[in-house]
Known about the structure:
The chain is α/β, with parallel strands linked by helices. It contains 4 helices and 6 strands; from the N terminus they run E-E-E-H-E-H-E-H-E-H. The two termini are 26 Å apart. The mean pLDDT is 91.
Amino acid sequence: MSGHKSVDIGVGKPLPLVGLGTWNVIGDDVGPTVRTALEAGYRHIDTAYGYENEAEIGQALEDCGVDREEVFLTSKIPPRRVGFERETLDGSLKKLRTDYLDLWLIHAPPQPEESVPLWRFLVAAREEERSARSA
Length: 135
């Protein structure tokens, strides 16, 4: 898939336009699916805290031999984790076996009164470079 297009979304690393979405990829299917995609040239892996497959994705990324800097890694925080942002981000990073995410998204809008604190956390995390390129 080298030569495929990417787009600059202002996060410091181009976002490949084609990526592997991992919703509903669970259990023993995760590792082979991610490894096959990376071997085929995919360089964007999209997951989320709620998919419960981050640990398997982290293992597959480690096993595949592709340099972390070459993979655009996206994860998401679900609204039920508002108030647990730090634990959620740290847990995702640990499971994914990485020091940063290229993009960390809010999976769905939280309650209006929770939006501002959550957004502030996202900005602070980006400034810490934990989700170095979060948005």
